[in-house]
Amino acid sequence: MELSVHTFVSLDGVMQGPGGVQEDPSGGFDRGGWLVPHTTEGQLEPVGEWFGRADAILLGRTTFEMMRTYWSQVTDPDNVVATALNTGQKYVVSNTLTDAGAAWGKTTVLRGEDVVEQVRRLREQPGGELQVHGSWQLVRTLHDAGLVDVHRLIQFPVVVGAGKRLFDGGAVPSAYRITESHVAAGGSGAVALTLRRTASGTTGAGEFVVRDGRESTA
Fold it and tell me: Which end of the chain is less congested by CB atoms within 10 angstroms, N or C?
């Protein structure tokens, strides 16, 4: 399976608490819900497409508990996101959860210190996509281990100014290419992007130079 990461992100890279004031107040974050005023009809349509591709979903503990609380209440059979989360295979990284499966459908808890190797083995299973949603700390761990194949983002035209960022200081340098992009419906200016890891995965380096009076690269 490919490992894909799905994120709502601000112009300054913040991914913390986009959907509500109390969604993730950890670290004293008091700017939760920053996405909501910028959401218009049709703008989040790509999210349904994301979940429609999922063979399994991988979450960190905090995101798992937040999603379980909210999405387990959604019983609309036409809601693609709710169907994927409530009935599909889920994996949650946690050393403390004990009732995940009983409380929310088909859920397997990944325990221990070898999370990267456990996820690596999941990727080796047949299937389409192993999807990560939210899960800031887990995403950073998987990125630094070189396990993320695809990022799908919806970037909103707002600067939050504080909070957990998708790529904070010290992230392993990596290169991606944009394979899909479009301005989301609704007119607020949000941009949906799909970025696929390049074959080398490295950023490389170069410089601009002038040769015979012409600008070039080296």
Answer: C
Q: Are 34 and 18 in contact (CB under 8 A)?
A: yes
- Mode of pairing for the β-strands spanning 191-197 and 214-217: unpaired
CA angle (86 as vertex; 85, 92 as ends), nearest 5 = 55
State how far Cα 51 lies from the chain centre.
12
- Tokens 């609380």 — which residue? 69
Separation CA 213–CA 33 (nearest Å)? 52
The pLDDT mean for the chain works out to: 90
Task: Quick: pLDDT tens for 6-50.
Answer: 999 999 999 999 999 989 999 999 999 999 888 776 667 788 899
Give the Cα-Cα-Cα angle 145, 151, 153 (nearest 5 degrees): 140
